[in-house]
Amino acid sequence: MNSKLFVALQRLCPQHLLSRAAYWVAESPSQRFNQAFIKWFIKKYNVNMTEAEHTDPKAYVHFNDFFTRALKAGARPIAEDSSHLVSPADGKISQLGNIERGQVFQAKGHHFSLCELIGGDYELAQQFNNGHFATIYLSPRDYHRVHMPYAGELEQMIYVPGHLFSVNDATTEELPSLFSKNERVVCVFKTDFGPMIVVLVGAMIVASIETVWAGLVTPPRRILQRKSYTKAANQPIQLEKGAELGRFKLGSTAIVLLPEQAAHWLSELNAGSPVVMGETIATRSGKSNNP
């Protein structure tokens, strides 16, 4: 389908209604439906079930249980070097590079505002001036849990309401400011090199986003929401490198944001590079961005 037509159809369709309907279908307890759909999905997208903790499709209660399946112990070794940052997810690099003048590169001819991406927090955005970003796209066949690129303490979570456009290549290349338009959950961490943000971006038919500390984050009321998790709020949450952060139920994209000179992306990574959770994607620069 022509990419312009594809985006136009997405604008016209009831995105949230379709996605919420998909959620309820994916949570259906009907074993007959689930087993047929799961088997079809595995074949259609060539899902590698040999690495799953439960290899038998019959082991899953419903489709979302299968979609967010755990992997066998050791299936994703975490790079041990303390100076290495790891991929938060399986997928492919959509783009990575530097944040320039508060703009993040999306695709040829398209950038989006860092401040808009994280919910309009100008002071927080300033901490990432001239920093670094990596956008990782998770395809339907991928493992759909998102993990910590580096050890950190959760400071706040921001839910940003928005659209639910597809995040596939056709839409990314055609629709300006896609990632700052879509519904998303912004997770802000304090690390020993300064702040780090992992953004979980929703998409068409992505019926929910979960985090390990808050459970189901979407769908809530579609208004901007912020929650502090600092020690002052008596809810300190420390997550080690490689620890599960959250998961997508059908879909999508994770964006890692780092401050200036915090790290360097591996030179061999570029747009289209495949990555798996736990492998090194960046190395520390040695400079601390803590105040």
UniProtKB/TrEMBL annotation:
The active site is at D90 (charge relay system), H147 (charge relay system), S252 (schiff-base intermediate with substrate), S252 (charge relay system). It is found in: Cell membrane. The record marks G251, S252 as: Cleavage (non-hydrolytic). The modification Pyruvic acid (Ser) is found at S252. Pathway: Phospholipid metabolism; phosphatidylethanolamine biosynthesis; phosphatidylethanolamine from CDP-diacylglycerol: step 2/2; Lipid metabolism. It is an enzyme of class 4 (lyase). The chain crosses the membrane at residues 193-217. GO terms for molecular function: phosphatidylserine decarboxylase activity. Keywords: Cell membrane, Decarboxylase, Lipid biosynthesis, Lipid metabolism, Lyase, Membrane, Phospholipid biosynthesis, Phospholipid metabolism, Pyruvate, Transmembrane, Transmembrane helix, Zymogen. Is synthesized initially as an inactive proenzyme. Formation of the active enzyme involves a self-maturation process in which the active site pyruvoyl group is generated from an internal serine residue via an autocatalytic post-translational modification. Two non-identical subunits are generated from the proenzyme in this reaction, and the pyruvate is formed at the N-terminus of the alpha chain, which is derived from the carboxyl end of the proenzyme. Its cofactor is pyruvate. It catalyses: a 1,2-diacyl-sn-glycero-3-phospho-L-serine + H(+) = a 1,2-diacyl-sn-glycero-3-phosphoethanolamine + CO2. Its EC number is 4.1.1.65. Binds 1 pyruvoyl group covalently per subunit. Coiled coil: none annotated. Heterodimer of a large membrane-associated beta subunit and a small pyruvoyl-containing alpha subunit. Catalyzes the formation of phosphatidylethanolamine (PtdEtn) from phosphatidylserine (PtdSer). Belongs to the phosphatidylserine decarboxylase family. PSD-B subfamily. Prokaryotic type I sub-subfamily. This is Phosphatidylserine decarboxylase proenzyme. It comes from Zooshikella harenae. The gene is psd.
